[in-house]
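Could someone model alpha-D-glucopyranose with this protein?
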Amino acid sequence: MRKSTRCLAAATLALTLASASQSQAVTVTMACGTVGMELQMCKDGAARWAKKTGNTVNIFESPNLTNDRLGLYKQQLAAKSSDIDVYQLDIVWPGQLAQHFVNLKTKVPAAEVNAHFKGIIAANTVDNQLMALPWFTDAGLLYYRTDLLAKYGYKSAPKTWAELATMAKKIQDGEQKTNKAFTGFVFQGKNYEGLVCDAMEWIVSHGGGTVVDASGKVTINNAKAAKALDTAASWIRTISPAGVTTYGEEEARGIFQAGNAAFMRNWPYAWALGQGDDSKIKGKIGVAPLPSGGAGNAATLGGWNLGVSKYSKNQDAAISLVRYLTGPEEQKIRAIEGAYNPTIVSLYKDKDVLAKNPFFGSLYSVFTSAVARPSGPTKTKYNQVSQAMANAVTDVLTGKKKGQAAVAKLSADITRIKGRAW
Ligand code: GLC
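Reply:
Sure, complex below.
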């Protein structure tokens, strides 16, 4: 072969390979959350898949609050937009969004699906269609300052809300002598989905039911639920700042992590950040079940799942990304680096995961017995129910209504939303 012919042949081969890999390699767009380390960890995981497959992932930065994400995603999906291929979906959304997602039941081997907690798979299954694979699970926890409990003579975390109030007040009064910004207890008091999560914990732990029960009956109008809300209102301006009614997860974490609160209600992700090198309270954090209001402790079930849009033009690659990210290798990395609770049962026995997050083991039952919000029974209307509930709780926290009046009105509101049937 003459030299010029050889050059031409080599160039043609290179071109063929390039176009072949171009026709296979695709760009997938994934919507990621942005709370704490979420965005960076999402980018890292997606990059690992991209490296393995030769594909590219575009990251769509979703708003921080779950309600804002839902609004945005609903618009995209209603317009049948193909802009986002993979969505990060809140555990309370399947009933509202299922029709827009690829049924993964026929695309993912059963053994892979069955490695996840059964209840989470069930929550992502609507009309026998698996709309998303679980990525991480969440349950509400009580964070406390081990150093301050010891300083004020307490041996362990509070078991009841009344104990929490007493301890928080004593620590707050003492610490405020040298730190005016110090407060007893921070939680998610803003009017949004996070408040619904916190209020579920107050209500269930007082024996006030789950707002709407599994059969669809509206149960919120009861004295125990009213008492739970009045109890939470009594914290405002005594052990919690008035501003707590504007706090989401990150505002509460900011105060706790700056060393300015004795107690905090938050999700597991706050652990990894609190133990980070730049945290003022590294090594001084305890994690316990949330207190009881007389009916045992209750943690609200949260968590996020990954689904593939029916309108995606790259469904195969999108499914591959979802399977990779929800698989054991990624879930282990995320548990170790970010304290994201695995949804794969076997990872709760993994030594590296437990060494980094001891409470995954000691509070295992908190995660497995977490209480679901009533998104299952209220189906497509959950968002309306949740908004009505957040409004009712806000009325009590801001002193506009007493618990009894608020639960009576909420019951009437939910009954109206329900109409003849859910
Ligand atoms: C967490 C939970 C999610 C919940 C949200 C409320 O992200 O995982 O389920 O809806 O908090 O703010």
